[in-house]
Write a structure and sequence with these properties.
heterodimer; A: alpha+beta; VC0802-like; six-stranded antiparallel beta sheet; globular; B: alpha+beta; Alpha-Beta Plaits; 2 domains; seven-stranded antiparallel beta sheet; about 25% helix; about 35% strand
């Protein structure tokens, strides 16, 4: 049996905006046939205390492209360790970046959230470096200097709980 | 070796995935695409967006599987994307969400290692505040769950959560 629940909201509700700054972004590519090998390296106990703030992975050219955001100090160490262990050729390191993330009561159940977020930032001339939206949340990686301006732009579109 | 503790698993309904790659301007494309999907009342269940090292932008999104044809029509429509953008789609995939976790990196590592050993593909990953979601073939979900249950410590009598409610946003507004 399928249960259908219907609701309507005039302005997309959020539980507020959260900002993280002083982060580094680290990205690398790894061949698909070696993902098990990469998995063993990433699950190594040396990396278990690393507190990543953001991870996305995308399939790309018979491989996987992984993006991580970490506090600057941890990010530098993680970057150096992986470079030594994996002999990475294609990688990217950006510093400083920040994350703006938010979620809301109906995220995941309704359409229009990505449109509202990307369009607001585009109109405000703010460049999104990377983004991951899952489990009813939106994570946006931006240049650190753009965080406050992005919050301002999004606040015009989204309703923020006080 | 002690297995990592996780709080639980959540499985999605059947989804479909669209991957779009090409040179800029990606934000305009993300905005245009999400606007077109919103106009058709299509909810995006999962989205990642990134600029690759090679200069190409990559947008990956998942919608409910019953929206495969309407979404295909949008992404293939002339005028929405520059001609040099590549579109790849997967008609039936599933999402496995693991929560809560202490180390997303460790969970990612264990999933990549164990799924890789069992030939279970990973088509996408994204973290949220307290969860990490993995995309794979819908047909591989049962095997993927079996592998997770044998690789992590789950609470006793835990069974993966499956969606029972299907929400829609109405186009009709009701005033108080």
């Amino acid at each position: 049996m399928e249960t259908i629940a219907v609701y309507w909201e005039s302005r997309i509700k959020t539980y507020g905006f959260n900002k993280l700054n002083n982060l580094s972004l680290f990205e690398f590519y790894y061949p698909a046939k070696k993902t098990a090998e990469l998995g063993k390296i990433l699950s190594d106990h040396n990396f278990q205390d690393i507190k990543t703030k953001y991870i996305i992975a995308q399939e790309s050219n018979n491989g996987i492209s992984l993006v991580f955001c970490l506090p600057e100090k941890e990010g530098r160490g993680f970057h150096d360790s992986l470079k030594k262990t994996l002999s990475l050729k294609l990688y990217r390191y950006l510093y400083p970046v920040g994350i703006l993330f938010f979620h809301g009561p109906h995220f995941g159940d309704r359409y229009g959230i990505a449109d509202a977020a990307f369009s607001s930032l585009l109109e405000a001339g703010i460049k999104v470096i990377s983004s991951g939206c899952s489990s009813a949340s939106v994570f946006l990686v931006l240049a650190e200097d753009d965080l406050s301006r992005a919050e301002e732009a999004l606040s015009k579109t989204f309703d923020s709980a006080q | 070796m002690e297995r990592l503790k996780i709080g639980g698993l959540k499985l999605s309904v059947a989804l479909c995935q669209f991957e779009l790659r090409g040179p800029g301007p990606p934000q305009k494309i993300a905005s245009t695409l999400s606007k077109a999907l919103a106009a058709e009342k299509i909810n995006i269940e999962f989205l990642t967006y990134n600029l690759s090292k090679d200069g190409a932008y990559h947008i990956s999104l998942c919608v409910n599987q019953d929206k495969y044809y309407s979404t295909s029509k949008i992404v293939q429509e002339k005028g929405y994307f520059p001609v040099n953008w590549e579109v790849v789609s997967r008609e039936k995939i599933g999402m496995v969400t693991i929560f809560p976790y202490h180390s997303a990196l460790a969970v990612l590592g264990v999933i990549m290692a164990t799924w890789g050993e069992n030939s279970i593909p990973v088509y996408g990953v994204a973290t949220s505040l307290s969860a990490i979601s993995f995309l794979t073939d819908f047909q591989a979900i049962d095997k993927a769950v079996e592998v997770i249950q044998s690789s992590f410590q789950l609470p006793d009598n835990h069974a993966p959560l499956k969606p029972e409610l299907h929400y829609y946003q109405s186009t009709v507004s009701k005033k108080d």
